[in-house]
Each structure stands twice: as C-alpha cells, then as structure tokens.
C-alpha cells in the first residue's frame, strides 16, 4: 500500500466519524472476517433505567431498595448507577455503606447499617449490620442465598424481554429482584445487516445472562446457536477477564477477528483482537486499547470502516 493512498483513506475515515490510530491499521481491517460485538454500551445504548422491583414474599420493598441502592451507590457500573438513581427516586436518601466490594462481572456487596424503628442508627454497634449482596443470581447462589420461586419467576420474565435482572440478598436469603433495562440502539440491526453484506460473521459477546443475550441477539438479527451460553454467534456469561480467551479461541479457529467494545472490561479483548474498535462515547480504556474509534458510537461506522479499507487498499491492489 502506498503511504499516499493510506493517508487519503485515513482522512476519509475522519470525515465519516472514524478515528484511525495509524495508516497501517487499514491493512488488518481489510482481512477481517468475524466481528465480535460487546452487548452493553455497544449494541445497546448502555443507558440503563430501573424498570421493576419485586420483593420476595414477606419483604418490604422500600427496605429492599434502600439497602440495594446504598451498595450500588458505591459502584460506577451502569447497572449500579441505574439502581442507585431509581432507589433514590423511590425512597429518598440512601444510607452509607462500609466494606464495599466489587466482584468484577458479577456484582457488589457491602455493609449497610441495620435500620432502627426510632430512625436513629447506632454507629458503634455494627454487629447487627447486614452484608448486602447485589448482582447476578449466580453471585447470590455462590454466597448461599437461594432464590425463592417468585424471584426465579421475576428473573425469567425479565430475561425473556432481554432485560437484566439483578438479585439482592442479605442474612442468608435472597430478598428481591431489581430489573434494569437498556435500549438497543436503533442503528444496531442495520449495522449487522451491513456486516453480513460485507461477508462478516457477527458474534455477540457479553457478561450478561444467556437468555438476555439470546433475546438481544434475536432483536438485532444475530441468530443464536443451539446452545446459547457458548454458541457460534452468541457468547454469554463471560467474565471480563475471559473475554480475551474468547477472542483467542476464535483466532485459533483461523478467523481474523474485529472486536467492538466500550467498557474497561473490554480493553484487553480489544487489544487482543486483530482489529479493535472502540465506541467513542465509551471509556478511555477501551479507546486506548483500540485501533479505531467510532466517534458517534454508531455501529454502522464499523461497517463503513471495513468497506473503506477494502476500497482504499483495493485501488492499489
Ligand atoms: P457486559 O459484558 O454486558 O458489558 P459486565 O461484564 O460489566 O457486562 O457485567 C456482567 C453482568 O454482571 C451484568 O449483566 C450484571 O448482571 C452483573 N453485574 C456486574 N456489576 C454489577 C453491579 N454493580 N450491580 C449489579 N449487577 C452487576
Ligand atoms: Mg460494554
């Protein structure tokens, strides 16, 4: 490729809202045959909202929201922001949390002072504080907090709709389910049609639940395989650290892999992929790890970038 043609291609990319780290990037872009898409913030807007609250039988909904909201208020995760904001809207000020812990890709926990009927909290007496766990149902199961049937049902219903259900528990029991919804970008389905038109295989990759992933995939035109956890095209329940392994596995099958992501949890996978594309509205970590940045966060620009590189390099052979 002549430097001139590559520079022209790079300039044309900038006009299309695609920032290219260096002209040599166009070379690897041309050979890509598989495009891995992170779900949250990439295929979806990532702007979550709390849409429903289910308290387990005998539990108080306001208390559920207060405790879950307090713990999530210490987290930067988009799901956590939605839960803290939704809880505050419904029950007002949230109590303080101590001993906050984040379990990457699974959820959070922390101690929230036990409530007193007189409205005062005794900060010296922390023995009756509850360790509140908020996150994937699997995280609660791991902490020996089984889900009663009514909560299982709430999770099933949310998953069918493609919404994420977050479980809340303390004191050895799951106490409720909070459902957060995120919207599929209205450009995602069109982008996926364009990827196919370029002969690329789209793959959805997410840390979220397999049923949520399958529902989102179906809505944007990615066919789920027979096994929705690890299929050819929908790969769900992948911990942040394991996203890299998924990319390596696809590469070991002989594919040339592009990956599009927005999160800190995508950075290593973006760097490992043959071509990393960051959503420009996402995190700095994702942008730094990537070869290309889609300035407007519109997935159709990823198809434009691949078409552009093929055309740019095609003119010079
Ligand atoms: P993605 O791969 O879709 O960008 P993450 O890897 O960040 O998602 O998270 C995977 C899943 O872990 C989420 O869908 C959610 O169920 C759970 N999770 C992670 N962090 C939190 C949190 N702070 N509160 C509740 N759930 C969480
Ligand atoms: Mg993401």
From TrEMBL:
UniProt biased composition (Basic and acidic residues): 113-124
Coiled-coil intervals, chain numbering: none
Chain intervals for the UniProt region annotation (Disordered): 108-128
Localization (cell): Cell membrane
Family membership: Belongs to the cation transport ATPase (P-type) (TC 3.A.3) family. Type IB subfamily.
Protein name, UniProt field: Cation-transporting P-type ATPase B
Organism (species): Dietzia psychralcaliphila
Full-sequence range covered: 452 to 768 of 820
